[in-house]
TrEMBL record:
Belongs to the bacterial solute-binding protein 3 family. It holds the Pfam family SBP_bac_3. SUPFAM superfamilies: Periplasmic binding protein-like II. This is Amino acid ABC transporter substrate-binding protein, PAAT family. The lineage of its organism: Bacteria, Pseudomonadati, Pseudomonadota, Gammaproteobacteria, Pseudomonadales. PANTHER family: L-CYSTINE-BINDING PROTEIN TCYJ, MEMBRANE-BOUND LYTIC MUREIN TRANSGLYCOSYLASE F. Gene3D superfamilies: Periplasmic binding protein-like II. InterPro entries: Solute-binding_3/MltF_N. It comes from Pseudomonas segetis. The keyword Membrane does not apply. Residues 20-242 form the Solute-binding protein family 3/N-terminal domain. The keyword Signal applies. It comes from the Bacteria. Residues 1-18 form the signal peptide. Keywords: Signal.
Length: 242
């Protein structure tokens, strides 16, 4: 009986290891977060950035990639601890605790040589055209609420580029680096044009549930240390893509 009681006490007193933190991201957001054929290993610039920050914070973690709509649902339902990388729009700031920015990306309009437009000065200049965008994405607050003809049938940026090249839409919007990545993937750089005026230089953030102040603060502190010691810049340069 004495040994049985001792065993029970040891079980009660033994520390319970916390489950690894779960970080989730878009599985179709190359070159930022994606998987290669026949592999489920997450890779990409944002994956490397978040992995480095979580390691610096000394947090046990897992990174998993899912369709973007599911990523948002998992964060909202507390099925994931953090999600990345969110645009720093007013809507997103109201929904989540945004920590960062991890990086900054240029949001641009891309078209083909079949359209007459050469640049734009106000969003009204885009009114005659059908603008393709990925369903569920937020781009920039003013644009998101502008009265424009939109096609939101694309489920990911790769599909959006394919729709533009097929002539199904006039103009698409997205991250410049990413759009060019998918254009190059289809050997179609000579078929597209990026309108010179940038919509916005959009910071990209890691998003936490508003009730998770503890992880958000730990992430923010670790991110700042990596910025200060130059390790964040080294990762960004490694993934530089023109």
């Amino acid at each position: 009986m004495r040994y049985l009681l001792l065993g029970l006490l040891l079980c009660i007193c033994a520390p319970v290891s916390a489950a690894p933190l779960l970080a989730v991201a878009d599985d179709q957001f190359a070159p930022y977060s994606f998987t290669q054929a026949h592999s489920e290993t997450p890779m990409g610039l944002d994956v490397d950035l978040v992995s480095a920050v979580l390691s610096e914070a000394k947090l046990d973690f897992r990174i998993r990639l899912y369709p973007w709509q599911r990523v948002k649902q998992m964060l909202e339902r507390n099925e994931a601890n953090l999600a990345f990388a969110f645009a720093g729009t007013a809507e997103r700031m109201n929904q989540y605790l945004l920590v960062g920015p991890l990086r900054t990306g240029a949001t641009v309009f891309m078209t083909t040589h079949k359209t007459a437009i050469t640049d734009w000065q106000s969003l009204e200049d885009l009114a005659p055209y059908v603008i393709g965008q990925v369903r569920g994405y937020a781009y920039e607050t003013t644009f998101d609420h502008a009265e424009l003809s939109r096609d939101t049938s694309a489920l990911n940026p790769r599909q959006l580029v394919s729709m533009l090249l097929a002539g199904r839409i006039d103009i698409i919007i997205g991250d410049k680096t990413q759009l060019m990545y998918f254009v190059q993937e289809q050997n179609s750089a000579s078929k597209v044009r990026i309108l010179p005026r940038v919509l916005v230089e959009m910071p990209r953030y890691a998003a936490f549930n508003k009730n998770d102040q503890q992880h958000a603060k730990a992430f923010a502190s670790a991110l700042q240390r990596l910025k200060d010691n130059g390790k964040l810049d080294a990762i960004l340069k490694r993934w530089q893509y023109d």
